[in-house]
Design goal:
This protein is of the alpha+beta class. The protein has one domain. Helices cover about 25% and strands about 35% of the residues. An 8-stranded antiparallel beta barrel has the order 1-2-3-4-7-8-9-10. It has a two-stranded antiparallel sheet with strand order 5-6. Strand 9 and strand 10 form a beta hairpin. The chain is elongated, with a radius of gyration of 23 Å. The protein starts with a helix and ends with a helix. About 0% of the residues have low confidence.
């Protein structure tokens, strides 16, 4: 019985560490340097700034938050999982942890966040993508910048600027060891109760 319980505990710890190994948390920032104003909704150019985090697994963002702290659509937005289109934006949530063409996002879709965390439900949304080359006409954002557009009820902001993606600090091994040691009394208590049960 003790061997079975010990095996279950060890298996649980191994699975937890394996899950952590495939999922990496990144810090994300955006600072606006210009305004596209393709649809003429911006009026006075907004000054949009945002920060947040992304959970990235096998090159896809599977979770995250974007906190827009200034600009026309401030709020805390939740990443919409998966890929698709919702009438306002196309998104695929692909993240390049090693930059491609200088960017950590692709140029065709990018990331989508909404206030509700769901696409297509008429809540405000934010979409971020990378501009590997100058896109004349439709968007016109300079090469090497990131676009961060909001939608619903209209396209505002239509911002472009600088974005960063950096690995979030990982707890040190000593912190994990301290957490494991805190669980030690529970294990000792379980073993003692098992021994008492056999002698009774």
């Amino acid at each position: 019985m003790k061997k079975v319980q010990l095996a279950i505990i060890v298996a649980g710890i191994v699975i937890a560490f394996q899950a952590r190994a495939t999922l990496t948390v990144y810090d994300l920032t955006f600072t606006q340097t210009g305004e596209s104003d393709t649809y003429g909704n911006a009026g006075t150019p907004s000054v949009t700034a945002a920060s947040g985090w992304l959970d990235v697994e096998n090159g896809l963002a599977v979770g995250g938050v974007l906190d827009v702290t200034s600009g026309p659509k401030t709020g805390v937005y939740t990443l919409v999982p998966g890929s698709g289109t919702d009438g306002s934006f196309v998104y695929d949530n692909i993240v390049y942890t090693t930059p491609v063409n200088g960017g950590f996002l692709d140029t065709t879709a990018g990331l989508l966040w909404s206030l509700s965390g769901t696409a297509g439900d008429n809540s405000s949304e934010m979409n971020m993508w990378y501009n590997a080359a100058y896109q004349p006409g439709y968007i016109g954002d300079p090469a090497g910048t990131y676009s961060l557009w909001g939608a619903l009820p209209n396209y505002n902001p239509e911002a472009y600027g600088n974005a960063t993606l950096t690995p979030a600090p990982i707890p040190e091994a000593s912190t994990m060891l301290a957490g494991a040691l805190m669980l030690l009394p529970f294990g000792v208590g379980a073993i003692r109760s098992l021994r008492r049960g056999r002698t009774a």
